[in-house]
Amino acid sequence: MHIPDGFMNAGVSAAAGVVSAGGIGYSLVKAKETLSEKLAPMAGLVAAFIFAVQMLNFPVAAGTSGHLLGGCLAAILVGPYAGAVAVAVVLVVQALLFADGGVTALGLNVLNMALITSFGGYAIFRLIRGVLPANRGSVVAASGIAAVLSVVLAALGFVVEYAIGGNGGASITTVAAAMLGTHVLIGIGEGIITALTIGVVLGVRPDLVYGAQDLLPTLQLRDPSIVAGRP
Amino acid sequence: MAAKRTTTWAVVVGGLLVALGLAFFVSRFASSSPDGLNKVAIDQGFDDTQTNHPTADGPFAGYGVKGVDDQGLSTGLAGIVGVAVTFGVGLLLFAFVGRRKAASGEGEAAAATASSGSAP
């Protein structure tokens, strides 16, 4: 879903740049509060893993492909703040090193693929978890469904931006219908990859899944004398 | 309990190996069809508004390594570069974040977690 330079006019590109710079700056500050020591290398891994999986375009319809966006996955693994920053790192590297996604469009791409997917996806994930039983199966299911919807939200982001400042004069209603239809299909791929990845990490180290930390024992006493001393 | 706990670094190294494997070996099998947005742009006739990318002549532009003729190898090597750079940038950024957090006191954080037992 990388927007190249030229699709959007300078005004909407610059506005998105300001919003994204502010959003990522704020996320970096907030990540300090939510990111524990052990999650720091995890956040680096999340960026690298998302880069790798984003290379793997899968076919979704005749002559159309899609790839993981990763924001929802990142948010569930390391929290929405660190997750948004990790995806932004991927997008900046892609734009500068691999000429994927425009440079003036970087703000638009960070807004759609890092901020909207991480925060929107994580909010949906929490909502779904709220109505499901508190167990690992629910975490996997919620992550898959939230990931599908996060891609649809990102596509909606593009539609709104195109309505405000898109070039080329395409009809906004047909663009909206085409974008949403295609990205529901791409979202299914996103949901499968996200649920699989969360399932694997839950199996190896459930405490490394930020969105599942409420499933862990809240307090672990290692010194039996503390227990003995209690009335 | 949890006698054989996988260390965080083991998870990170294992995850990186998976990422490198995907980027090097699997990337060559990726679909070359336009992605969802590009397809919509083509169908709706606004793909020609795209302008030249400022780094289009870079050594890794378009997920390939300039001068490597074998398409699959070129893509795979570009993938390894990308995994290494994103991990490096991410780690440096978050290591910096982690260090500043560590200075704010571990005891407080532990006490807060114990008393609230809060969900994220």
Question: Keyphrases for this structure?
Answer:
heterodimer; A: 231 residues; mainly alpha; Arp2/3 complex 21 kDa subunit ARPC3; two-stranded antiparallel sheet; 8 helices; B: 120 residues; 4 helices; 0% strand; extended; disordered C terminus
What would you note in describing this structure?
The complex is a heterodimer of chains A (231) and B (120). Chain A contains 8 helices and 2 strands; from the N terminus they run ααββαααααα. With 231 residues, chain A is mainly α. Chain A has one domain (10-213): Arp2/3 complex 21 kDa subunit ARPC3 (Orthogonal Bundle). Chain A is globular, with a radius of gyration of 19 Å. By secondary structure, chain B is mostly helical. Chain B has a domain at 14-26 and 60-105. Chain B has helices at residues 8-26, 36-43, 71-102, 106-116. In chain B, helix 1 runs antiparallel to helix 3. The interface between A and B is large, with 84 and 74 residues.
Shape of chain A: globular
Low-confidence stretches of chain A: none
Structural class of chain B: mainly alpha
Gyration radius from CA atoms of chain B, angstroms: 22 Å
Low-confidence stretches of chain B: 101-120
How is the biggest beta sheet of chain B arranged? none
- The assembly state of the depicted protein chains is heterodimer
Q: What is the tally of beta strands of chain A? A: 2
**Assigned CATH class of chain A:** Mainly Alpha
| Mean pLDDT across all amino acids of chain A | 93
Q: Give the helices and strands of chain A as they follow along the chain.
A: HHEEHHHHHH
In helices, the fraction of residues of chain B equals 55-70%
Structure classification of chain A: mainly alpha
Q: Radius of gyration of chain A, Cα only, in angstroms?
A: 19 Å
Strand percentage of chain B: under 5%
The pLDDT mean of chain B sits at: 84
